[in-house]
TrEMBL record:
GO molecular function, one term: ATP binding
AAA+ ATPase domain ranges (all copies): 23-170
Name assigned to this protein: Nitric oxide reductase activation protein NorQ
One Pfam family this sequence matches: AAA_5
CDD domains: AAA
Keyword line: ATP-binding, Nucleotide-binding
Family label: Belongs to the CbbQ/NirQ/NorQ/GpvN family.
Amino acid sequence: MVKTQYINSDETIFNDASALLRLNKNILLKGPTGSGKTKLAETLSETIETPMYQVNCSVDLDAESLLGFKTIQTNSEGQQEIVFIDGPVIKAMKEGHILYIDEINMAKPETLPILNGVLDYRRKLTNPFTGEVVKAEPGFNVIAAINEGYIGTLPMNEALKNRFVVIQVDYIDGDTLGNVIKEQSQLDDDNLISRIIKFNEDLRTMTKQGQISEEAASIRALIDLSDLATIMPIERAIQRTIIDKLEDEREQQAIINAVELNF
């Protein structure tokens, strides 16, 4: 049963992603931070009742983080032996589960080519640590997420990008956002939720005009401030969840102005 479902007024996003999984296509979810890409992947996993292994990419990601590592264990006879502990990629392949690669363009370009055979029609790889040839079991699928233009991200290699079908995931607003707030936060005050939605519209406008960064208008931040609004004044909730995260004083002041206008 899906506990917290991904919601978007554009139903083609979820429907197309579901269809792509049935076709065994690799999906690249492209959109700003906090727009619900991970929630979409989780909902897909729960809907098709297939567990998901997650890889969080960073500049420190290496082959061991993806594939696994060797270690020493004591066997049933009390003897020590070297064994290989499967990483998330190999586990997902062997078990026929979903592999979710978050912020794939945060990884160093030289790290990811090891996945080329996993991402094409072969659906297999040779483990460089053991020599084992691993072929994915039926049900194995790959979903990746990408945030373009953020600090620490790199242009995605075209050969890698060509192995995916891209789905654009943008922020939600209006009634859809209201439903998400009610479902995913503890706030149930309809009047306050309506004001938060209007506040979010102002944030989105300022984002499009370049006055504030996209992170300031993320759905994740709105869910947090909605929770906090149940235990403190809305102005302080916004201060804690949005304003204090920003370092640019001009961005902070722009949001303070929006708070004064809406609340």
